[in-house]
Amino acid sequence: MATTWHILGAGSLGSLWATRLFRAGFAVQLILRDAERLAAYHAEGGLTLDEKGLRRTYAVAAQTLDATEPIERLLVACKAYDAEQAVSSLASRLAPGAHILLLQNGLGSQDAVAASVPAARCISISSTEGAFRDQDFSVVFAGQGFNWLGDPANPTPPDWLHALQASGIPGQWTPDILTRLWRKLALNCAINPLTVLYDCRNGGLLEHDQEVASLCAELAQILERCGQPAAAVDLYADVRRVIQATAANYSSMYQDVAQGRRTEISYLLGHACAIAARHQCQVPALNQLHERLIEHLTARGLPSD
Ligand code: NAD
Ligand code: KPL
To answer: According to the model, what pLDDT value does residue 1 have?
Structure first.
């Protein structure tokens, strides 16, 4: 029998993946927190995907965390700060050698998950696709992007990659997933916190070019020191390119703060500063940015971790 895709988290990316896999004919089970969420889901009649204004609802099967059927393949589609606890709560359901796909942005949560379920194979995904929820159990596909998949512990690709292609999920296996994750983390660290502190769209950072350049120089230093030199190549030029290409957009961290949502700061800037300290790398601009961001979040009653 074909392996079921268990998808934890019916948020933006979880719904985007679930609907595309489901409509391509793959077996999908959404995993929701509890009976109340499951009842709310059933009342909606499925997951709705809005692509370029075309809305369709898919009756994807769903269950709660405490269902008992074994899990062979799990896509973890919650935020980085929820991932370790969410996977731990499913640990007893994981089949021997289960594959766990981790969609979390930043770094730190992947290692925490892998350490908590050592018998599973953990595959990290660096995603540039964009989606947001417009209602409960309804997601808008907002930006074409790409998914890099890889396993830092094992360069051999899994045998289910064809399912992505068959579902129209753009993706490719890479033996250098850490380089991809570090590069995206560096881009996010150079752009997102400043957009929050200056209350601007990404393009607003063109007026703070010196500050962006200093952050990029320190980020490149960390990347070189922690064994990721490829992620440091032309970082500043790439950050400038992304700022220009996304000038009209608000960064994901800006949107989280504007909507009073917890950010993933600990897995982005917090992680970069922690790794710098571990490698005795002097990064005064990043540390100061981190402190300013923590102050900003605290003043708004948002968690600073
Ligand atoms: P989201 O907040 O929209 O969805 C997360 C979902 O997980 C929520 O529905 C939440 O209730 C659920 N959840 C959390 N803990 C759970 C648990 N224990 N059991 C069951 N459900 C649980 O988040 P998102 O935007 O889809 O982001 C997921 C990850 O993907 C983040 O790390 C984010 O940075 C990354 N990412 C998102 C996008 C995007 O466009 N949304 C793009 C690239 C990367
Ligand atoms: O990924 C991003 C985000 O907003 O999180 C970009 C557009 C690259 C800005 O850092």
So the answer is: 73
Structure tokens at 192: 């997102």
CB 114, CB 122: distance < 8 Å: yes
Residue 54 token pair = 């075309």
* Ligand 1 pocket, residues with Cβ under 6 angstroms: 8-14, 31-33, 65, 77-80, 82, 86, 103-105, 127, 129-131, 133, 264
CA gap 186, 106 in Å, rounded: 9
pLDDT digits (tens, 9 = 90+) for 39-58: 999 999 999 999 999 999 99
Instruction: Spell out the domains of the chain, with CATH numbers in brackets.
Output: 5-175 (3.40.50.720), 179-299 (1.10.1040.10)
Supply the pTM of this predicted model: 0.97
In the block, tokens 């009842």 appear at 39
- Cβ-Cβ contacts under 8 Å for 47 (sequence gap 6 or more): 10, 15, 18, 19, 22, 30, 57, 58, 60, 137, 138, 139
Centroid of ligand 1 to alpha carbon of 233 (angstroms): 30
Residue 96 has φ and ψ, to the nearest 5°, of -55, 130
Residue 212 beta carbon below 6 angstroms from any ligand 2 atom: no
**Beta strands of the chain (E only): which ranges?**
5-8, 28-32, 47-51, 54-58, 61-64, 71-76, 94-102, 121-127, 130-135, 138-143, 147-150, 171-173
What's the confidence (pLDDT) of residue 305? 93
Query: DSSP class of residue 250?
Result: P
Ligand nearest to the CA of 264: 1
In the structure encoding, which two tokens stand for residue 246, read together?
Answer: 């996304």
User: pLDDT tens for residues 111-129?
Assistant: 999 999 999 999 999 999 9
